[in-house]
Design goal:
A hairpin with a 2-residue loop joins strand 13 and strand 14. The strands form four sheets. Strands 6, 7, 10, 11, 13, 14, 15 and 19 form an eight-stranded mixed sheet that branches. The chain is globular and about 70 Å long. It is mostly beta strands. The chain has three helices and 19 strands. 41% of the residues are buried. The longest helix is centred in the middle third of the chain and has 11 residues. The two termini are 30 Å apart.
Length: 286
C-alpha cells in the first residue's frame, strides 16, 4: 500500500537540516500532510484513604502496620522532557515507495560507566560512533549540544551509545543520495512528534537529498520542541507518561520515496548488471 502525505520544514540553530512528518492520526489518513523542517540545527490530589481502604497486605493487628517499601530506582539513563527549543516546521508532500521501511536503526544508550564496562569486557573502548543504515547511503548518530558525535560501540549486533546525566543530545541523519527519505523516529518507545507509543505507520521527518536532518526533541508545536536530555530513568518522559519499559533505546524507521531511489546499492546493482546471466534453451510458454 502506498502511503502519501505532506511534509514539514524547520529552522534551528547550528546545522542545516530538513525534517518531515504529518500530524496525529496521519496513519489513518494517507493523504494527511507530513512535516519537514529546515534550519540551522532544531492534579490530581488524592483524598486521604478511609478506614475501609486498608491495603490487602496490611497487618490485621492494630499494633502492627505493614510498611510499604519504595520501588528501587532503575539504574542507567532515560530521556527527559527538556527545555523548549525553537524548531519550526513546514509541510511538503511525500509518497512512500512501500509500507515497509527501506531500513531501520536501533541505538541503545546508557551512562558512560555501563558502556565502558561493556567495552572493557569486549577488549575495546567507546569511539565517536556513526551508524550506517541500509546499503550505507544514510548514516545516523547522536550528537551533543556542540554537534560532537557521542561515543559508543557495536557488539553482538547491538549499538551502544554513552551519554551523561543532564547532557542534551540530538538525533542526526545524513543523506548521501539524490533521493528523499522519510524518518519515523522514537525515543524510549515514544514517537518524537506526538509522544504516543511509537508505530512506524505514523508519519515522520523528511531528509532531503545530500542534506542533514537534525531532530532536536519531542515536538510540542509547529514551532518548538522539548529538548532531549539524558536523565534518571524515573525522570524520563516515558516513565512519567506511558511507563519505563522501553527506556534506553532510540529507533528510526527509514522509508524511501516512491520512484527511483539512486542509492549506492542501486547504482552498484545497475553497474554490475550481466547481459547474459544464463545460457540455455527456450522453454514452451505455460
Amino acid at each position: 500500500m502506498m502511503i502519501s502525505s505532506g511534509v514539514l520544514r524547520h529552522s534551528s540553530l547550528p546545522l542545516c537540516l530538513v525534517l518531515a512528518s504529518c500530524g496525529v492520526g496521519a496513519a489513518q489518513n494517507a493523504s494527511a500532510p507530513a512535516y519537514s523542517s529546515r534550519g540551522t540545527s532544531a492534579a490530581y490530589e488524592a483524598s486521604p484513604p478511609s478506614a475501609y481502604d486498608a491495603p490487602a497486605h496490611a497487618a490485621q493487628s492494630s499494633s502492627s502496620i505493614a510498611q510499604v517499601q519504595p520501588v528501587p530506582e532503575r539504574p542507567g539513563l532515560g530521556t527527559t522532557y527538556g527545555e523548549q527549543v525553537y524548531a519550526p516546521i513546514s509541510f511538503t508532500p511525500f509518497v512512500r515507495a512501500s509500507s515497509s521501511p527501506w531500513a531501520d536503526v536501533a541505538l541503545h544508550y546508557n551512562d558512560a560507566d555501563g558502556v565502558d564496562a561493556h567495552a572493557q569486557y569486549l577488549g575495546t573502548r567507546p569511539q565517536p560512533l556513526e551508524i550506517y543504515a541500509g546499503d550505507g547511503s544514510l548514516s545516523v548518530a547522536l550528537v551533543d549540544d556542540a554537534g560532537r558525535t557521542l561515543p559508543g560501540l557495536q557488539a553482538s549486533g547491538r549499538t551502544l551509545i554513552a551519554g551523561a546525566d543532564g547532557e542534551r543530545y540530538r538525533i542526526l541523519v545524513r543523506n548521501a543520495t539524490t533521493a528523499r527519505f522519510e524518518i519515523v523516529a522514537s525515543v524510549d518507545g515514544l514517537d518524537v512528534i506526538d509522544g504516543k507509543p511509537a508505530d512506524p505507520n505514523r508519519r515522520g521527518y523528511i531528509v532531503d537529498p545530500h542534506d542533514v536532518l537534525v531532530i532536536d526533541g519531542f515536538r510540542t508545536s509547529d514551532a518548538n520542541v522539548a529538548a532531549f536530555r539524558f536523565g534518571k530513568v524515573a525522570d524520563s518522559y516515558a516513565a512519567k507518561t506511558s511507563g519505563d519499559r522501553n527506556v534506553g533505546v532510540i529507533g528510526l524507521a527509514i522509508f524511501a520515496e516512491r520512484g527511483a531511489v539512486w542509492t549506492p546499492g542501486e547504482l552498484r546493482t545497475r553497474d554490475t548488471a550481466n547481459p547474459f546471466p544464463q545460457r540455455g534453451y527456450t522453454t514452451p510458454p505455460r
